[in-house]
Amino acid sequence: MSAPADRVLVRGLRLWAHVGVLEHERQTGQWFELDFSLGCNLSAAAAADALEHSLDYSLAIQALQRQARTIRCLTLEHWSDQIFSLLEEIYGEVPIWLELRKCQAPVPGFCGIVAVQRSRRWSP
């Protein structure tokens, strides 16, 4: 399936979570940032000016904030799978693209950002 022409996009969702390979990352927690896109046809929502014909992003944001408070795992890859599952529970099997970033990777001498980019039912 190619990338949908229409999508709902959320950028820069900051989440505090207990994810990381190092024990102190899982104990103390740290900031992560998430961007995600949900593919959908927005024509009906645009024509009717009605949210019920779109994908309500507030549902995802609130659910992801709850998930971040409870998740405990080692890798961004595993957490991204949990994010896919959560978004599919809310919206069904829509095309999803995401980038999940660890804001401060504990690597000596490195002050950049590390991330995983993944997609389901979405190809460029």
Strand content: 25-35%
CATH evolutionary superfamily: GTP cyclohydrolase I, C-terminal domain/NADPH-dependent 7-cyano-7-deazaguanine reductase, N-terminal domain
The structure class reads alpha+beta
Query: Could you state the order of secondary-structure elements as H and E?
Result: EHEHHEHEE
Structural domains: how many: 1
Number of β-strand runs: 5
Q: Mean pLDDT, as a whole number?
A: 94
Walk me through this protein's architecture.
The chain is built from four helices and five strands. Helix 3 (57-70) packs antiparallel against helix 4 (76-91). The protein has 124 residues and is an alpha+beta fold. The chain is elongated. The protein has a single domain (7-120), classed as GTP cyclohydrolase I, C-terminal domain/NADPH-dependent 7-cyano-7-deazaguanine reductase, N-terminal domain (GTP Cyclohydrolase I, domain 2). It starts with 6 loop residues before the first strand and ends with a strand.
Please describe the topology of this protein:
Elements (H helix, E strand, L loop, with lengths): L6 E13 L3 H6 L1 E10 L3 H6 L8 H14 L1 E2 L2 H16 L4 E7 L11 E7 L4
Parallel strand pairs: 1-3
Antiparallel strand pairs: 1-2, 2-4, 4-5
Helix pairs in contact: 3-4
